[in-house]
Design brief:
With about 425 residues, this protein is mainly beta. The protein is built from no helices and 22 strands. A hairpin with a 3-residue loop joins strand 9 and strand 10 (about 180-195).
Length: about 425
């Protein structure tokens, strides 16, 4: 039904209330194929080749999320719907020679690589305004009954492509038995093109970007290791949401991370603790009616994972994450817009607890089941941080049967029938 707010507060209506168009629908077909070939060219020299193909066909009719309550507090206004069709083709090929060699007291693992990625997108969209829903509290009536009687406005009908050619080199050096150092460089050439038949326009953009990473790990004893790393990366953007779907500057990221991996009781208990800080630049945000790559955001936090197998077949797993976000830029004209606010859809606290048991022998070997809980803290749904969804806890169950050649699994979500919202 969507997430209607009255000012800063969620509207208190039953969760089975339907405020969306009765013909809203989404269908998606995804086809994937992946190939992998490893060849040993010489002693200590391995060539790894990977290729993957994906075809996605998406058709959707969906209500837009910019609706509001009128001054009377009961009428839903600003309603609209979009009809969209996407055809997305993705192909990626990687060739990576891995060379293990020793120079004096140092053991090197050198990874080189060439990558080619091609994304082709054909997308078209049209939108239509809808009549108000007079009263959302008492037997709300959705006025529209079919798509034929609506007045449609075409938004775009375009072809986009994004080509990425990359070369990279990384060296991991083992210094004795306790220290490992890693350093790498990568060059990407992005070729992006976008042509729209509605606007109409035609854009092409070329970008050459260099990224890098460095890291250091220390393992004083076999049961524990600590590590740290810094990396600079670039992500090409291809989307059907922005005014220019492909001819956009790449998003960049700078990340710092420190962590520790340990095991206890002869490996029965394993833990992983990490703290991080990430700076994103040029990610997509909505400015007025357009989506543009101008966003800047700082994210920092910690993650903790715990896993254990107290008895053969019995697995316990838990994790917790604490994350804070700070928006640093949201508008090309006003540098202070949204600055200091939290990002949309990111909970400050999140965690999960899960356990399963698999029968280890006899007639029912391979059968098992389990369950667990998922917690997600409240999240903001707007960049001004005026509207926030509440925290929630859900419980899930699973039953499975595992064989050496195939797995069969049935999941039951939200067995407690809890009411929750997501953005």
């Amino acid at each position: 039904m969507g997430i209607p707010f009255k000012g800063r507060t969620l509207v208190g209506i039953p969760r089975d209330t339907k405020l969306y168009s009765p013909f809203s629908d989404t269908s998606q077909d995804v086809y994937r194929l992946a190939l992998k070939l490893d060849s040993e060219l010489a002693e200590g020299l391995l060539l790894q080749q990977n290729a993957a193909f994906m075809q996605r066909d998406l058709a959707l009719a969906r209500n837009a999320s910019n609706r509001t309550l009128a001054a009377n507090g009961v009428t839903l206004t600003g309603r609209s719907i979009r009809d969209q069709h996407d055809q997305w083709t993705d192909f990626i090929y990687q060739a990576e020679p891995v060379w293990k060699v020793k120079t004096g007291p140092l053991d090197h693992t050198i990874l080189g690589g060439f990558q080619f990625q091609m994304d082709l997108l054909y997308t078209r969209r049209k939108t239509a305004n809808l009549l108000n829903i007079t009263n959302i509290y008492h037997d709300p009536v959705v006025p529209e009954t079919n798509m034929k009687n609506l007045t449609w406005v075409p938004n775009f009908n375009r072809n986009s492509h994004l080509l990425d050619y990359a070369l990279y080199l990384q060296d991991q050096i083992a210094i004795g038995s306790q220290w490992k150092w890693r350093g790498g460089l990568r060059w990407d050439h992005f070729d992006s093109y976008d042509k729209d038949r509605v606007a109409p326009y035609e854009h092409q953009l070329y970008n050459d970007k260099f990224s890098w990473n460095v890291g250091l790990a220390y393992q004083p004893i076999p049961q524990t290791s600590s590590y740290g790393g810094i990396s600079k990366s670039y992500l090409s953007i291809l989307t059907s949401e922005a005014a220019m779907g492909a001819a956009l500057v790449p998003e960049s990221g700078l990340q710092y991370e420190l962590g520790n991996r340990s095991q206890f009781l002869n490996g029965m208990i394993r833990t992983h603790l990490a703290v991080f800080q990430t700076y994103r630049k040029n990610f997509l945000i909505t400015v007025g009616t357009n989506t543009e790559p101008i966003g800047e955001q700082m994210t920092q936090g910690l993650e903790f994972d715990f896993s254990s197998e107290p008895l053969p077949g019995w697995v316990l797993w838990a994790n917790y994450g604490y994350t804070t976000t700070e928006l640093m830029k949201l508008s090309p004209a006003d540098p202070s817009a949204g600055k200091g606010h939290s990002a949309q859809g990111v909970p400050e606290n999140a965690g999960a607890l899960w356990t399963t048991y698999e029968i280890q022998g006899g007639t029912f070997k391979g059968f098992g089941g389990g369950g667990g809980f998922v917690y997600k803290g409240g999240v903001f749904v707007d960049t001004l941080n005026t509207q926030k969804l509440p925290q929630f806890v859900t419980g899930d169950l699973v039953v499975f049967y595992r064989t050496p050649h195939a797995d069969f699994q049935v999941n039951v979500k939200n067995v407690s029938n809890a009411t929750y919202y997501f953005a």
